[in-house]
Design brief:
Radius of gyration: 22 Å
Largest sheet: 7 strands, mixed
Strand content: 25-35%
EC number: 1.5.3.1
CATH superfamily of the largest domain: FAD/NAD(P)-binding domain
Protein name: Thioredoxin reductase
Oligomer: single chain
CATH architecture of the largest domain: 3-Layer(bba) Sandwich
Pfam families: Pyr_redox_2
Shape: globular
Number of strands: 27
Number of domains: 3
Keywords: Oxidoreductase
GO molecular function: sarcosine oxidase activity
Helix content: 10-25%
Number of helices: 10
CATH class of the largest domain: Alpha Beta
Length: 424
Amino acid sequence: MKVDLVVIGGGPAGLAAAIEAKENGVDSILVLERDRELGGILQQCIHNGFGLHRFKEELTGPEYAERFINQLKEENIDYKLDTMVLDITEEKLVTAVNTTDGLMQIEAKAIVLAMGCLERTRGAINIPGTRASGVFTAGTAQRFVNMEGYMVGKDVVIVGSGDIGLVMARRMTLEGANVHAVVELMPYSGGLARNIVQCLNDFDIPLLLSHTVTEVRGKERVEEIVIQQVDEAMQLVPGTEKTIACDTLLLSVGLIPENELSKKANITLNPLTNGPDVNESMETSIPGIFACGNVVHVHDLVDWVTEESCRAGRSAARYVKDELTSGSGTLSTTPSSGVRYVVPQFIEPNNIDGNKLTLMFRTDAVYENVRIVLMNNGTRIKSVKKRHMVPAEMESVLLKAKDLEKITAGEISIAIEQEEAVLS
């Protein structure tokens, strides 16, 4: 089989990229999705809060996904469900399998990677104790409750205050469970402020910051857990142990971009994001292979996934039409003081779409009254005032034409500076 563009993943990133590529002149597109339906993780996110930026209205996850699924079908873009991609190569040969077509090999002119991310498990964070049943990742529990119709427990403790954990605290409460607490290792929440208010405060669910689970007890089923406070150095504080009787422990302890296929194609991965290094066009280190969404870096809002994926789709179309200059470009971005990472990592000025470029990043701590400062070869090119910044919320800086004119080849660094230091 030969197509112009293969999109791996039929979630919000893959759908947006495929539609955008179609609207930019690519007719031969195939979307490969391993689940039984399109929409990805949005299908199990039945709470609202999606689409506020994209559509200026509040949608549930399935409603947000439905708009793109309908558009995909109206555009007559081909897709295959229940299809697992086994391998991709640098030559853009895709090997996939399903029960209808069997083993397939697809030659593509371009590929968009939109595989999303995985949840960290109990094994990934080494929680001690017995291996009793009743320990779930929050996303797995969400799928059981919202899509499969199974209740996973009655007395629940949630570890990690990421958005999935916060949403599941509310969801389990609404389904009749007693959620005793959300336990967070860090001194700040890993979720959006609106979710802390709407999912915890509104339901009187305690958020225990600077705490961790030190033991799971139970023979067949979880019977109780032990939590303990940690100090600023993340060391356990003796004498703060507390036992909570429960039958279920939900883990919301981080997401990891799913890049096993990227590794097979020898795509360069970034140690800070665990996703591919990409340039301004969302092109990876392999020409013609693009990436977008949570496979690049974990997003907080699906609206940003869509925006980024549209850029990947437009770029893939330009590549197919031989209008794109591949490569790492003449500029690189570097996270500096207070910044964990920056996407994209490389920039080719000739490819910048619409003469404006958005740099996305996350901070490494909570900051108040600061400035985001961009430097290029020792010259300040932009400074943006911010009153409040937290690691849970993705930040961005838009570089317009007047900003881009100041940039020469070399490195763009992004740092967080205290406002007083800037004014002095």
